[in-house]
Write a structure and sequence with these properties.
Pathway: Nucleotide-sugar biosynthesis; UDP-alpha-D-glucuronate biosynthesis; UDP-alpha-D-glucuronate from UDP-alpha-D-glucose: step 1/1. Its EC number is 1.1.1.22. Belongs to the UDP-glucose/GDP-mannose dehydrogenase family. The protein is of the alpha/beta class. The chain folds into 3 domains: 200 residues, NAD(P)-binding Rossmann-like Domain (Rossmann fold, 3-Layer(aba) Sandwich), CATH 3.40.50; 83 residues, Orthogonal Bundle (N-(1-d-carboxylethyl)-l-norvaline Dehydrogenase, domain 2); 147 residues, Rossmann fold. Helix content is 43%, strand content 13%. The protein is built from 19 helices and 14 strands. Helix 4 crosses helix 5, helix 5 runs parallel beside helix 6 and helix 10 packs across helix 12. The longest helix has 32 residues. It is elongated and about 75 Å long. It binds 1,4-dihydronicotinamide adenine dinucleotide and uridine-5'-diphosphate-glucuronic acid. 1,4-dihydronicotinamide adenine dinucleotide binds next to helix 1 and helix 5.
């Protein structure tokens, strides 16, 4: 087996010996993509401007929590199939296919996406590529970015070799990142008209997914960019749809879980992403719906995505609801002791970017409550963002002397909780279920007052304020 990476100039004569893949940006998306590409048999080089991150990854240590990924990282850094560098010079001289997976966060002080990191990565590559290569954008970007970058890359590339360009958005979910990368629901690839070379190379990169009959959709740049944000906007809308009904069932009485199950049986609707609760957060859904609105407004289509403002507002109102409910239950927040279960934006992740749980915890603290927080993986990241909460390392430590316990991230450990696990620890037997995962009847039968989002809250007077904040 030859070891030299090589792309020749015409599609028909192209001989791929062993594709060399670089992944620019080694955060959640990039580190996953790099390790999975190595698992699929490619030689991979991860590139980042964050030296500390690169040192950690090169040492086989994953700087974030993602099930299944540490094993792949260790395996392939040890075998030498997966290496890491901060050098674009090395990447440009070595790689055949360069995936760009750098961050596209919300602009500071604005709603649009901050695409300066994508621009910088593409330009650095263009300046350092010295052989035939394909640049493949993976980051989530405003429509129009790929076409602009494709031109810019050609302008800035003065070295030897031909650069081809494609956009291949990523649909993985944190917590399922390895599985979603190795076996995605679909692959979407935006290429320039008739760029059969780019298409052939990507068919080679994704040969194992193609063998597994993963749908592979080749389209233009604009459609590829829009598919990504359309998918996230749809998911966000689905969550806010059920959460809007939560506002109604909380008011009139009713059970949001039963409602979701019942409409979800209709195959046209589907039950997934109809879990009502404290709403969506994370590094993607919130910023992506805002960036989509900002982009279409820039294009002059001001009204088109206006419904996403409602989706965003319904989502943020869920956080207000938890804070208001806590105050309603306790009479006042100042001086109250609150036990928070969960601070990551979702279970099986240590990501606290735009986490509804951290937002609620911080707001309770700012209102004068003593806030004890336990998350199986998220404490360290949360402490970097909001150091003043009392981060503890177990459920008992979080709920000790609590006037109210609030479940905000549905880790399995919390879903498994039973009333007797907390008895004797809390000041009041009061729990707010912010994710609709506890069995209300079981907690009520054990003399707990339980308030679940999406259900009417009618506390018995004597249950509330047994031990009021002092
Ligand atoms: N996190 C996720 O689950 C998914 C993320 N995405 C998209 O992927 C992109 C990346 O997201 P994450 O991985 O979550 O972000 P992240 O913040 O975890 O990682 C971004 C990385 O890019 C690096 N970087 C920034 N500028 C660079 C440059 N010029 N050259 C090299 N590296 C550079 C940063 O140091 C950081 O390590 C975003 O557009 C996001 O919307 C898409 C699907 C899933
Ligand atoms: O673009 C991205 O980065 C990714 O964004 C989401 O993935 P992710 O943010 O990892 O997590 P999800 O599982 O989608 O959850 C997002 C948020 O919605 C919340 N959620 C999810 C489902 C639900 O029914 N209810 C609900 O409140 C979760 O608690 C979480 O806060 C999408 O699911 C991915 O397909 C996409 O690639």
């Amino acid at each position: 087996m030859a070891t030299e990476g090589h792309l020749s100039r015409t599609s028909l004569e192209r001989v791929i010996v062993t594709l060399r893949i670089t992944v620019i940006g080694t955060g959640y998306l990039g580190a996953t993509h790099a390790a999975c590409m190595a698992e699929l048999g490619f030689d991979v080089l991860g590139v980042d401007i964050d030296e500390r991150k690169i040192e950690q990854l090169a040492a086989g240590q994953l700087p974030f929590h993602e099930p299944g990924l540490p094993e792949l990282l260790k395996k392939h850094t040890a075998s030498g199939k997966l290496r890491f560098t901060t050098s674009f010079e090395e990447a440009g001289a070595w790689g055949d296919v360069h995936f760009i997976g750098v961050g596209t966060p919300q602009k500071p002080g604005g709603y649009g996406a901050d695409i300066r990191y994508v621009d910088a990565a593409a330009l650095s590559l263009a300046q350092h590529i010295t052989k035939d290569a394909l640049i493949v954008g993976k980051s989530t970007v405003p429509v129009g970015t790929a076409r602009r970058l494709a031109c810019l890359v050609q302008e800035k590339h003065t070295g030897p070799g031909t650069i081809r360009f494609a956009w291949n958005p990523e649909f993985l979910r944190e917590g399922f990142a390895v599985k979603n990368t190795i076996s995605p629901d679909r692959l979407v690839i935006g290429i320039e008209d008739r760029d059969l070379d780019a298409e052939a190379i990507l068919r080679e990169v994704y040969a194992s997914q193609l063998a597994a009959e993963t749908p592979m959709i080749f389209t233009d740049y604009e459609t590829a960019e829009l598919v990504k944000v359309a998918a996230n906007a749809f998911l966000a809308t689905k969550i806010s749809f059920i959460n809007a009904f939560s506002e109604v069932t909380e008011f009139v009485g009713g059970d949001i879980r039963t409602l979701a199950d019942a409409i979800g049986h209709d195959a046209r609707i589907g039950r997934r992403f109809l879990n009502a609760g404290v709403g969506f957060g994370g590094g993607c859904l919130p910023k992506d719906i805002r960036a989509l609105q900002a982009r279409v407004s820039e294009l002059g289509l001001d009204r088109t995505m206006r419904f996403l403002t409602e989706v965003d507002e319904i989502n943020l109102r869920r956080r207000d609801r938890v804070v208001a409910l806590t105050e309603e239950i306790l009479g006042r927040l100042n001086g109250a002791t609150v036990g928070i279960l969960g601070v990551a934006f979702k279970p099986d992740s240590d990501d606290v970017r735009d986490s509804p749980a951290l937002d609620v915890a911080a707001r309770l603290f700012n209102a004068g409550a003593n806030v004890n927080v336990y998350d199986p993986q998220g404490n360290a990241n949360a402490a970097k963002r909001f150091p003043r909460l009392n981060y503890v390392d177990s459920v008992p430590a979080a709920v000790r002397d609590a006037h109210v316990v609030i479940l905000l991230t549905e880790w399995q450990e919390f879903k498994n909780l039973h009333p007797e696990d907390l008895n004797g620890l809390v000041a009041n037997k009061i729990i707010i279920d912010g994710r609709n995962v506890l069995n209300v009847q079981e907690w009520e039968d054990a003399d707990w007052t339980i308030a679940a989002l999406g259900r009417k809250f009618e506390p018995s007077r004597e249950a509330i304020g047994l031990n009021a904040p002092v």
